[in-house]
Amino acid sequence: MDNWKAIAYLLASGQGFVLSLSLIAKGIKGRRASLFLGLILLVLSEELLNAWAMQLRYHSQPDAFPFWNFQSYLLLTIATWFFVRLTTEPDYVFKPRHSLFFAPVAVEIIIRCIWQAYRRHTGIELPSLLDNPAWFFATEILPIIGMIAVLAVYAYKLHGFHAGWKKQSTVSSVAIYFRFYGLFGFLMLLTFLWIAGVILEWPVFSGIEVLLALCLFGLGYIGYITPEFFMLPVLPKEKPAERPDFARYDDPAELRRLANAFMQDQLHTRSGLTLDDLAAHLQLPPRYISYLINTNFNTSFNGYVNSFRVEEVIRKLADPAEQHKTILGLALDAGFSSKSTFNQVFKQHTGKSPSQFALVQK
């Protein structure tokens, strides 16, 4: 059984190294989020390789290559921090000076290598670095504290984005939730197990190394094939309200009329519908309609109209009476004026392309 476990660890770590290096290479070429996702996967791959070595007692062999000296949990925390910044802040740019944050990782690896080389050269049995309380805190406890802080920031950003997303669109699906929370959930599980193993000293790692590897490898492949998968879409910025000009209007009543214009009168199916067209239909000032939409739905006029069009397409995709039509035909019936606009808006609202969504529906 131990041999099978060792083989599983070795295969998983090998696959992880190949994937992590591919992501890192892609990140160096420009997709910085892929770079840091690759570094996250690299740390886990090193952990699995170390688990393989422990199964075979490789550490105690005289000619063993001390690859474990290059493993750093500090790297996991720092890489996760930059990954979170790059995927949740559209304007964030990783600058060369930010590389200095990785200096503690380099110092840790250098000290470990020097310590190992001195032991081998002199033959003196030095105590493990982990026996030193300061070293243990800096390399084991501090990364955990940092990861908790990073995940707290990640959760805050996801919560804020999700609130804005719900105002902008009523479209929701399992795929969208996985896109927003899949990696976060995995990192939360990983951190919990990390705390349980290091601080509480629970025997948790032996039975779940392969499970964790499979989970992160899956997310790693997603990041490699679709780099923008973990990028949160850009929400329209909230515009300042201009309420004083519209004091004579009853907002709740006009919001109901606005909703009925689309849900009952199907105004969104008119290709090229403009704000002036809607204003003429409702007999309201265009600026007041913009005020209602911006204030209550945190989106623009086009975003509001397109949300009804997307919902119309989704409804017809599930309607047997509409199965004879192409997806583009349904989009044109719903009011979209071109295929490119439809594809872009549909993916922004659902997280999937129209063809991918249709396959899932089937």
Automatic annotation (TrEMBL):
Keywords, A to Z, come to:
DNA-binding, Membrane, Transcription, Transcription regulation, Transmembrane, Transmembrane helix
What Gene Ontology molecular function terms does this protein carry?
Answer: DNA-binding transcription factor activity; sequence-specific DNA binding
The coiled-coil regions, if any, are none
Chain segments annotated as transmembrane: 6-24, 36-58, 70-88, 100-118, 134-156, 176-196, 202-224
InterPro entries hit by this protein = Homeodomain-like_sf, HTH_AraC, HTH_AraC-typ_CS
Q: Which residues form the HTH araC/xylS-type domain?
A: 257-360
Among PANTHER family, the record links this protein to: ARAC-FAMILY TRANSCRIPTIONAL REGULATOR
Q: What is this protein called?
A: AraC-type DNA-binding protein
Q: Which organism is it from?
A: Dyadobacter soli
